[in-house]
Amino acid sequence: MDFGVISRLGRESRIRLPNVDEILDLGYAAHAADDAALRGTDAQTNAKQIIARFIAMEPRNDTEAAYLACAQAIVLTHGRALARRKRTWEGALDAARLERERLLDRIRQSRHQNSWLSLVWRLLGPLILGLTGYLVARVLAFVVPADIAAQTGHNVPSILMGLVFVFIGRSVAFWLSDQQRSAIELHYDARCYQADIAYELGKREEHHYYRARLCEAWKQYTDEEYPKTASYEMVMAGDIETRKKLERQRLVFNRTTLWLLRRAARLLRERSLKSETVRSMRNLHHRRTT
Fold first, then answer.
1. Any idea where the domains of the chain sit in the sequence?
2. pLDDT above 70 for 214
3. Who contacts 256 (Cβ-Cβ below 8 Å, separation ≥6)?
4. pLDDT digit string (tens) for 156-200?
5. Could you tell me which of 78, 77, 65, 80 has the C-alpha nearest to residue 9?
6. DSSP of the chain, one letter per residue?
7. Model's pTM, two decimal places?
């Protein structure tokens, strides 16, 4: 159609027909009218009634007919674009959930497949660790001063060392298992965030695209620029920035937790080295005095 020969919309038509912002709202109503998640709700009933009233509008002249046809086409395509974005978002969330369940099932299956090995390790693991600690304590007993050995004996420290080895071994096993599950959960949360932020960005992109098309149509049919007005795009921009801020805080928390774990391990290692140095100096002093 040649827009150059179309007569412009008069003042009465501009008041009677929906403007740019109202047509965008009608696009959201078209999406809600076909949204399966709203089936049977008052929101979907109201959305269908609003779309039905808009489709039933009768133009009074050829200019209004052309403008209404353009507006109706944009409303339908806008609603379908939002539905497509939502399906993509739901698919990404389902894929992330299935991957999380698959990884957790793999951990459970590995334990069930090697159930007899797990049972043997649960029975013999503490015994092996205890004997290892006992032997280590017996070996260290050779460098313990005689007066200290006479006061404490050899069996009690050895048994205590064995119990310490058992406790450390079990703690490390639980920690490794927890870290494996935490890594799966972190990966799942990251994928959910990526899906959410992609959905929000997609909605804002659709809003921006169709608003630009509607402003062009308004210019063609009224010969006036549509003024800048407050829109839902501002709300979406705020939601996107909030989600990004929360994700940055989550990443900082995870890095802080990892740093604290590394710091604790470093402190324990430094303390053990310091204890060994002090013990060596005491043994050297004892040998010199004797």
1. 9-289
2. yes
3. none
4. 555 555 556 566 666 666 677 777 787 888 888 888 888 988 998
5. 65
6. --GGGSPPP-HHHHHHS--HHHHHHHHHHHHHHT-GGGTTSHHHHHHHHHHHHHHT---SSHHHHHHHHHHHHHHHHHHHHHHHHHHHHHHHHHHHHHHHHHHHHHHHHHHHHTHHHHHHHHHHHHHHHHHHHHHHHHHHGGGS-HHHHHHH-SHHHHHHHHHHHHHHHHHHHHHHHHHHHHHHHHHHHHHHHHHHHHHHHHHHHHHHHHHHHHHHHHHHHHSSPPPP---HHHHHHHHHHHHHHHHHHHHHHHHHHHHHHHHHHHHHHHHHHHHHHHHHHHHHHHHHH-
7. 0.65
Predicted confidence at residue 152, as pLDDT, reads: 45
Condensed to tens digits (0 to 9), the pLDDT of residues 21-57 reads: 999 999 999 999 999 899 989 999 999 999 999 999 8
pLDDT category of residue 10 using cuts at 50, 70 and 90: confident
**Residue matched to tokens 């929000």:** 200
Amino acid type, 274? K
Look up residue 96 and give its two tokens.
């992330």
pLDDT of 63 higher than 70: yes
Longest Cα–Cα distance of the chain, Å, equals 118
Give the pair of three-digit tokens for residue 151. 């006061």
Q: Alpha carbon of 183 to those of 93, 109, 131: distances in Å?
A: 18, 18, 33
The span from the CA of 5 to the CA of 59, in Å, is: 18
pLDDT digits (tens, 9 = 90+) for 228-244: 887 777 777 888 888 77
